[in-house]
């Protein structure tokens, strides 16, 4: 006969006797050693809040849980990726388990560790226009007694005026009556677009 058992980690002994025709044999002992299931690893990354912009790479880090006995005999195995440096294009989760190289035991799948990587999109390049004096897509010309407003269409705008970055100017720079070159880019959730084409104001 066979006997199915389910034990936590530890050492156990079972004894069995055979009873046949009124005769009972001496007990035979069977020792059972149950190895511990490794605790799931601790997961992190080399990016703040596990967040990147689309097109960036991120390195995932799996550390052996210090509560595992003989941690030097353990390794981290990622379940849904090859290697630890990845270039995801959308937000997603990655999973890992711990393996004991001596016993062959591993973290069960329902107790695996998870790390969620946030991938923020790159915003579109803003466009620039002038309230008066527009000449084509990237320039405006005004008279010396006129003033024009330079506006950008986009979110989180960072301006560059004559090559110098300017912050917190909003979407419109009002009352321009000097010759300048304007560029603008968008910053959303820490992700930057490229700068727009230069927009030139001449008098």
Describe the protein in words.
- It is a single chain.
- The strands form six sheets. Strands 13, 15, 16, 18, 19 and 20 form a six-stranded mixed beta sheet that branches. Strands 6-11-10-8 form a four-stranded mixed beta sheet, with no helix packed on it. It has a three-stranded antiparallel beta sheet with strand order 5-7-9, with no helix packed on it.
- The protein is mainly β and 203 residues long.
- The chain is 0% helix and 47% strand.
Topology:
Blueprint: E1 10-16, E2 19-20, E3 23-24, E4 28-34, E5 42-45, E6 51-53, E7 58-63, E8 74-78, E9 85-86, E10 92-100, E11 113-120, E12 127-130, E13 139-141, E14 148-153, E15 157-161, E16 164-166, E17 172-176, E18 180-188, E19 191-192, E20 199-202
Parallel strand pairs: 6-11, 13-20
Antiparallel strand pairs: 1-4, 2-3, 5-7, 7-9, 8-10, 10-11, 12-14, 14-17, 15-16, 15-18, 18-19, 18-20
Given as residue ranges, the uncertain stretches (5+ residues, pLDDT < 50) are none
Beta-strand portion reads over 45%
Distance between termini? 101 Å
Mean pLDDT, rounded to whole units? 89
Helix vs. strand class: mainly beta
Specify the number of helices. Answer: 0
Tell me the series of helices and strands, N- to C-terminal. Answer: EEEEEEEEEEEEEEEEEEEE
Radius of gyration: 33 Å
Give the proportion of residues in helices: under 10%
Principal-axis shape: rod-shaped
* Secondary structure tally: strands: 20
Characterize the biggest β-sheet: 6 strands, mixed
Oligomer: single chain
